[in-house]
Amino acid sequence: MINIINNILISNGYKKIELVLQQDVADIYLFCPLTESKREEYFVTIQLHTQSDSTAEHLLENQVQDWFETISRSGKVDQTFEKNCTMLLCHEENEISIKTILKIEEDQYNFKKNVIACSQQEVLSLQNYLTQKQVKNVTTKVINDIINVDNGRGFLNFKKNNKLQKDYYSLILKIALKLPFITYTPQEQELSNLLNEIDNSLSPELASIYTQLTSSDVEWTETNSVQNIEIIWGKSV
C-alpha cells in the first residue's frame, strides 16, 4: 500500500528525500514539495511491519516524536516543516479499530496525521487496475478519471454498495479523502444539441410546422400571431 501512496506523491509534485530513520519497526519515507509546485507541505509515509491496534498506538506514543525531531534536525527540511507536515499511516483495516484511528488522527502533537486503512483485496484490485491500464504515474487526473468512471455511474454504484464494495474504486476514494492536494474535478457532461433532439423526435409533418414556426422570416406580433399559426397549420393540413 505504501508504494501506491509514494507513487501518488511523486506523481503530483513531491520528491523523496534520502534520510536514514529507524527502519526496524516500519517502512518510513520523507517527501518534500518540488520548488515549481509552489507547495509547502511535507509528507511522511509510514507502514508498520507488524500491524495491530497495539503497534499503531505504540507508534504514536513512543516513536513519532523521535522521528519528528530527527527530521527537523536533519538539515534536509526548511522551517515550514514543523508546522506543515502530514504523517500518512498506511494500515490494514482489519488490524486497526476506529477508536485507534481517531486517537491517531486527533493527536495534536508534531505531525498532522491521517490513517489510510484498507484491505489487501483493495490494494490488489488497484494494483491490477493500474497494470491493466498501463498507468505508471498515479496523477490527480488518473484519480479523477477513476472516480468519474462511466459518466459518474461508478460513484452512484459505490453509494449503493459502499459497505460491501472492496476494490480499486473504494481505495481510490479513501486515498483522495486523505491527501489534501488531491482536488476532485467533476466530469464535464457532453450537452446534447436540443434542436437536433427536437428535430429527430418529430414526424415529417410536425417537423415542417416546427421549422415554419421558428423561421426567422416570419414576423410575430401580438396582432398577427394567431393568423400566422392558422396560415402555417393550414398549409400543412
Any overview of this molecule?
By secondary structure, the chain is an alpha/beta fold. The chain contains ten helices and five strands; from the N terminus they run αβββαβαβααααααα. The protein has a five-stranded mixed sheet.
Question: Tags for this entry?
Answer:
237 residues; alpha/beta
Main sheet overview: 5 strands, mixed
What's the shape? elongated
What percent of residues are in strands? 5-15%
Count the DSSP helices. 10
* Strands side by side in the biggest sheet: 1-2-3-4-5
Order of helices and strands: HEEEHEHEHHHHHHH
Q: What is the share of helical residues? A: 40-55%
Euclidean distance between termini CA atoms = 71 Å
* Spans where pLDDT lies below 50 across 5 or more residues: none
What is the strand tally? 5
Structural class, from helix and strand content? alpha/beta
Please summarize what this structure is.
With 237 residues, this protein is an alpha/beta fold.
